[in-house]
Amino acid sequence: MSALMQGPPEGRVRVVTADAVAPLWTGERGSHARLMLTTSGPAPVEVWRWQLEPDEEYPSNPHQAGVVETVSVTSGRMILVVDGTEHTVEAGQTATFDGDTPHTYRGSGTETCNLIMTVHLPPSPASTP
How far is residue 101 CA from its own chain's centroid? Predict the structure, then answer.
């Protein structure tokens, strides 16, 4: 993990500003995804900020077994497609799913969708008893 991803040390707290993190994905209509940070420890969690423009989508390949994702929509609306089934997730709603199946994030409606995504990674084999 780079120093930029960790943010400046503030004792036990790391603060990362979205503008300081380059998008890891940018769509043709202006959508983007930023990996804000990855926690340390035996079962890391990635924290992402996403912006999805209407009808723009990001298809994701299945992750390794044990990966769990959550999406919390803070404004707008998205369509979450998991294993071919569409689920509408609106502002104020959170959805969770096993990430080991094909999934897609799609902006829906007429306004920009903003969301926070967490990716919970399984413990590494070395950390399990």
Answer: 15
Distance in angstroms (rounded) separating the CA atoms of residues 89 and 18: 23
* Residues near 92 by beta carbon (within 8 Å), at least 6 away in sequence: 73
φ, ψ at 20 (rounded to 5°) = -85, -5
Question: What are the CA-CA distances from residue 37 to residues 67, 86, 90, 96, 120 (Å)?
Answer: 17, 28, 24, 19, 12
Q: Tell me how far apart the alpha carbons of residues 54 and 35 are, in angstroms, rounded to a whole number.
A: 21
**What one-character DSSP code corresponds to residue 126?**
G
- CA gap 60, 118 in Å, rounded: 14
Please report which residue ranges of 1-129 form alpha helices under DSSP H: 3-6
Q: Encode pLDDT of 14-72 as tens digits.
A: 889 998 999 999 999 999 999 999 998 899 999 999 999 999 999 999 999 999 999 99
Please name the residue that has the structure tokens 């983007």.
Answer: 32
Please state the pTM of the whole predicted model.
0.85
Angle at 10 between CA 8 and CA 50, to 5 degrees: 55
